[in-house]
Amino acid sequence: MKKLFNSIVLACAVALSTSALASPNDGNFLAQRHMKKGIQCAQCHSNNDVNKPVRKAECLTCHQSYEAMAKRTSGVEPNPHYNHYGDRDCSTCHKGHQRSEVSCNTCHKFSLKTP
Ligand code: HEC
Ligand code: HEC
Ligand code: HEC
Ligand code: HEC
Fold first, then answer.
1. What is the pLDDT along the chain (115 residues), one digit of tens a residue?
2. Ligand 3 near 82 CB (within 6 A)
3. pTM to 2 decimals?
4. Which residues in 57-78 are b (16+ Cβ under 10 Å) and which e?
5. Any idea where the domains of the chain sit in the sequence?
6. How far apart are CA 60 and CA 55, in angstroms?
7. Superfamily of domain 27-106
8. Atom 36 in ligand 1: residue holding the nearest Cα
9. Do residues 91 and 54 make contact, with C-beta atoms less than 8 angstroms apart?
10. Whose CA is nearest to atom 30 of ligand 1?
């Protein structure tokens, strides 16, 4: 009986810990969409350190350069990847695990939508 109780406690602990750990996988945010393509946490979080900010160098190992991104969105007005605001970290707009932002709109009112 004690054994059964212990295994129930253990099962609850496992269920709790996996639900807490699952949060970076939740929703359909940028990280989740990447992970569906087989990309691992460590490919965005260098050394698998999720407490450090994700710098543009990590994104650019796959996405080449700001120039390449500016070319992809050259039809968008204003071009979010080529403007006076400069080459910021991608995560100022593209959030990993929550809704993305348009950082320009702290000053402007553009109807851009960041994926
Ligand atoms: C497509 C790239 C990408 C992938 C893949 C990714 N993340 Fe993230 N993650 C980010 C970005 C961007 C941030 C925001 C960091 C910042 O503020 O600079 C972030 C932030 C976090 C944070 C800080 C809290 C938060 O929500 O902002 C945690 C924890 C985290 N990621 C865990 C994970 C884990 C665990 C995985 C794998 C299951 C993962 N991430 C996969 C891009 C990614
Ligand atoms: C390991 C490679 C890799 C890394 C690292 C990576 N990406 Fe991607 N990303 C891809 C691939 C592959 C696609 C799908 C093909 C495409 O659209 O280029 C993609 C697509 C995207 C898209 C468009 C599709 C969507 O779901 O929104 C955005 C936006 C994007 N990435 C932003 C980022 C940002 C920002 C970072 C850094 C936080 C990042 N990526 C890091 C490989 C990567
Ligand atoms: C100022 C905010 C901002 C920053 C900074 C930014 N992006 Fe974007 N990004 C956007 C917006 C807005 C779009 C959607 C444009 C559109 O309407 O198609 C976009 C679209 C994309 C796409 C999809 C392009 C397509 O073909 O549809 C990719 C990939 C991407 N960004 C990658 C990056 C990477 C990598 C970085 C960093 C080097 C970065 N972005 C920095 C705002 C930003
Ligand atoms: C800290 C405030 C601030 C931020 C953030 C900012 N801008 Fe601006 N921007 C300005 C100011 C100030 C001007 C010049 C005054 C004007 O013409 O409205 C300007 C002018 C412009 C112009 C030319 C005038 C116009 O409205 O057509 C464009 C285009 C522009 N910004 C795009 C962007 C884009 C795209 C981003 C984000 C990637 C951005 N700005 C971020 C303050 C900002």
1. 455 545 544 444 444 334 334 455 667 999 999 999 999 999 999 999 999 999 999 999 999 999 999 999 999 999 999 999 999 999 999 999 999 999 999 999 999 999 9
2. no
3. 0.90
4. ebbeeeeeebeebbeeeeeeee
5. 27-106
6. 9
7. Flavocytochrome C3; Chain A (1.10.1130.10)
8. 41
9. yes
10. 50
